Amino acid sequence: MIFATTIASIMMTVPTPHFVAIVGATLIEVSKEGRAESDIKDSVVLIADGHIVAIGDRNQVRLPSGTKVVNATHRFVIPGLIDGFGAVRTQGFADAYLYEGVTTVIVPTAPQGANVDGESAVVAPQNGLSVVTGAPISGYSATGDIPKASPWTSHRLQDRRLDRAELTAQVAAAADAGRRIVAVEIDVWPDQLDVIVNEAHRRGLAVTAELAFTSYPNAINAGVDAFVRNDKYPLTLSRPQDFLAYADDPMGSGGSAAARAVCSPEMPDPTAFGNQLQASHTALMPTLSMEATADDVGGPNPWTLRAATFVDLSDLDDPVDPTSGARPYLDSHPERRDRIQTCARRKQEIDRRLHALGAVYLAGTATLSYGVIPGGGLHGELRLLQSTGLTPREALAAATSNIASAFRLADRGKLESGRRADLVVLTADPRIDVASVDAIAELWLTVNLSIG
What we know:
Elements: E1 2-6, E2 14-15, E3 19-23, E4 26-27, E5 43-48, E6 51-57, E7 68-71, E8 76-79, E9 81-83, H1 91-99, E10 102-108, E11 130-137, H2 153-157, H3 164-176, E12 181-184, H4 190-202, E13 206-209, H5 216-222, E14 226-228, H6 240-248, H7 256-263, H8 271-278, E15 283-285, H9 288-295, H10 328-331, H11 337-356, H12 376-387, H13 392-398, H14 401-406, E16 423-426, E17 440-446
Parallel strand pairs: 3-7, 4-8, 9-10, 10-11, 11-12, 12-13, 13-14, 14-15
Antiparallel strand pairs: 1-2, 1-17, 3-5, 5-6, 8-16, 16-17
Helix pairs in contact: 3-4, 6-7, 7-11, 8-11, 9-11, 12-13
């Protein structure tokens, strides 16, 4: 079933007939990591039963009798946006996402009180937002959790590692629970990673990773689909002994030397890492919005965003002050303020260089962290990706086709026959500036009230 929703009221939904045709818009091509340019002007998108039935030039697509025609002349159509690292704590979050054209949200999950990224509870949206969930996998814990204590020497040397059968069972349990992604935690070893990736891919699940006990080059060879957070994967550019120190104490001060190397004026050369990424299928999800908001380096006061009207202050983690715009994390380290901001900009520069070397990017916001707003945070992420060197089309692909491909979501993310009819109609051209994703005229989506 398809609903049309206007930007004027996210809660107004109007059921449509069996066939609907959006006619006259320019369809924006987002395939080939945003390098393809086979846009279709004066187009037709024919929709039925929640999916795209046909797509093409107005003169080439024949409309069945009784088709409802929607005039979209002088407008632009893109696939529904995907936030690769979000959260749905309330129905307001779900409304905020749809209000900003985000039709799919990928939510990492974690046990209550766990020391890993993820939500312990996800609200089932009542508005058609599609929620895709992921599960954490640790090298030692059956729940996916990692130790809070620091340093980790005893954890590395004395705790019992999970064996092949246990890791395989964890992946199977994630798949059976409807998870679509497994998130490899920082205490997974290389031999364990091979088991996890092979079993996840065999079951059609994607694999993301934040690493300490395993090197990032090793993980590329293992076939990990995406590295998450640009405060993590740049550490691989440090000296081997510094990365080893980080591995021994990743939750404490062990990463200090590695971080200093990354943030020093003499930035380490990312060429080898970038070349390896370019030759692989492993993508990067930097979650730029999280650090930009926390450190005030390109992130606006989230409360100035229009999606903020759907969110309560108490729903966010370490939020920016709504009135003053004060950043709690940054303001709690006044003696390190300049150094923190310099380091954040340095990591953005590393992403710029990695992109220039051919790395593929995915858009994820780490919504909630430091007050990143659902929906509006993804628009900010796309602007940050563009400022990091991606073309507007490449930034758009990072939130559509790239993430659908990396996370094996073959039913969305592109304007193609057979895919979900999750579409955003814009009044401005996102090929000129990705900020045009703000100019939403209409949202079309496939209603799906389940969480997978």
